[in-house]
Design goal:
Layout lengths: L8 H4 L5 H9 L6 E2 L11 H12 L12 H15 L8 E4 L1 H13 L5 E6 L4 H8 L3 E6 L1 E3 L2 E3 L2 H6 L5 E7 L11 H14 L2 E5 L25 E6 L12 E4 L2 H12 L7 H13 L1 H23 L4 E3 L7 E6 L5 H12 L1 E2 L1 E2 L10 E5 L4 H17 L2
Parallel strand pairs: 1-13, 3-4, 3-7, 7-8, 8-9
Antiparallel strand pairs: 2-10, 5-6, 9-10, 11-12, 12-15, 14-15
Bound molecules: pyridoxal-5'-phosphate (PLP).
């Protein structure tokens, strides 16, 4: 008997990421332009790194506040006041080891073995993966794409609710589609959750990356006291801090005491020097963030213009996040296609299949890179598309 077969079933059967397979294959190729993962090509800005350095050099190497440094929780509260126009008590926030950790804790807090959790699909696969590990069945509810873009079908969402459903994981702006919800949909989802006694796990990590007039609509705009809402978020995207593994959750003050306990029994908290960097990001990072959002808009427009010039490519123009999710005539097996693209175009894309069955046939490009790279990569892709299959 192999040792693996003696492991817990859920651990053994946790899906291997399709993205890992292609990035492991392509990352060693000279000159490859990697657009498969969801991150900017910039290193974290100096003022954030300096704050972390300073803290580390000052000897901040001890156990620290599990829920997060009080100054960081206050900085999160100030950030929400500035960007969302909401006054939120600092104690409603807890600091986690990245957005993924926040999602895991939100799942642990709301569901367990035999329960179900709904999510919109195509979707970043980690929610479903984490649910499966916890013995929770993640049930995909397909977003619908038509000539006006992607849509959330509320009737389908309600039809997917069963007596076992505990939560709805709601990600907008969406990775991978770039779809952004409107306020009416948020109100309707909240109404559904109230009616059926469900939790909403609100993943709004891209809410400032929105290409409308202002930030994306948020549950913060429509929530009322007593709503079963847990927000999960991260420093990764806004401030180019993917490698730091720092994020946050927000419930109410009472919930955050429970979340603090969950932190105790998972990571036991985030290193103080990382938290000092995170404070600098929140306090001094608005200008950087503004530049990043403007950049995402310009690179989105460039990618859409270059790839849109081909009559063999179809996509809905993303209204948020920093991904282009597109179809190419003839691509039916997206896993196969991304390997061919690495070999022939030297560009790294994520296969749509990695975002669930509803993503098959699509390819995902992260365009949050330098404009020269976006231009070069899209040019190479356009040549590949012209020749495919
Ligand atoms: C929709 C969504 N939520 C959450 C995360 C998690 O972010 P991280 O774990 O890097 O902080 C990501 C990362 O790609 C994401 O795309």
């Amino acid at each position: 008997m192999s040792l693996t077969s003696a492991l817990r079933r859920e651990a053994r059967l946790a899906p291997v990421s399709d993205l890992e397979a292609i990035s492991n294959y392509g990352r060693v190729k000279p000159g490859l332009i990697p657009m498969w993962s969801g991150e900017s090509d910039l290193t974290t800005p100096d003022f954030i790194r300096d704050a972390a350095h300073k803290s580390l050099n000052a000897g901040d190497t001890f156990y620290t506040w599990q829920a997060g440094l009080p100054e960081l929780r206050q900085a999160l509260s100030d950030f929400h006041r500035r960007h969302f126009g909401k006054v939120i008590d600092a104690e409603e926030f807890v600091v986690t080891s990245g957005g993924m950790h926040a999602i895991t804790l939100a799942l642990q807090a709301t569901s367990g073995h035999g329960d179900e959790a709904l999510y919109l699909s195509p979707a970043w696969p980690n929610f479903a993966g984490a649910a499966g590990l916890a013995g929770v069945t993640a049930v995909p509810v397909p977003l619908i794409e038509n000539e006006d873009g992607w849509h959330c079908d509320l009737e389908r969402l309600e039809a997917a609710i069963t007596p076992r459903t505990r939560s709805i994981f709601f990600n907008s702006p969406s990775n991978p589609t770039g779809w952004t919800t409107d306020l009416d949909t948020l109100r309707a989802v909240l109404k559904l959750a109230r009616k059926h006694g469900l939790w909403i796990i609100a993943d709004e990590v891209y809410s400032l990356f929105h290409f409308g007039e202002t930030r994306a609509p948020s549950f913060l705009d429509v929530e009322e006291v007593g709503d079963r809402l847990i927000y999960v978020n991260t420093f990764s995207k806004n401030w180019a801090m993917t490698g730091w593994r720092v994020g946050w959750m927000r419930g109410n003050v009472e919930l955050s005491r429970t979340f603090e306990n969950l932190i105790q029994y998972s990571s036991s908290g985030v290193a103080e020097f990382l938290q000092r960097g995170a404070i600098a990001a929140l306090d001094d990072g608005d200008e950087f963030l503004k530049e990043q959002i403007a950049h995402a808009r310009t690179s989105r427009d460039m990618a859409c213009r270059i790839l849109g010039a081909s009559n063999r490519v179809q996509f809905s123009v993303p209204t948020g996040a920093f991904y282009l999710f597109f179809k190419v005539d003839g691509v039916t097996d997206s896993n196969k296609a991304v390997f061919d693209i690495v070999d022939k175009a030297n560009v790294g894309l994520a296969p749509g299949r990695g975002f669930g069955e509803a993503g098959e046939g699509y390819l995902r490009m992260c365009f949050q890179r330098s404009l020269s790279q976006v231009e070069e990569a899209c040019g190479r892709l356009a040549s590949w598309i012209a020749r495919y299959p």
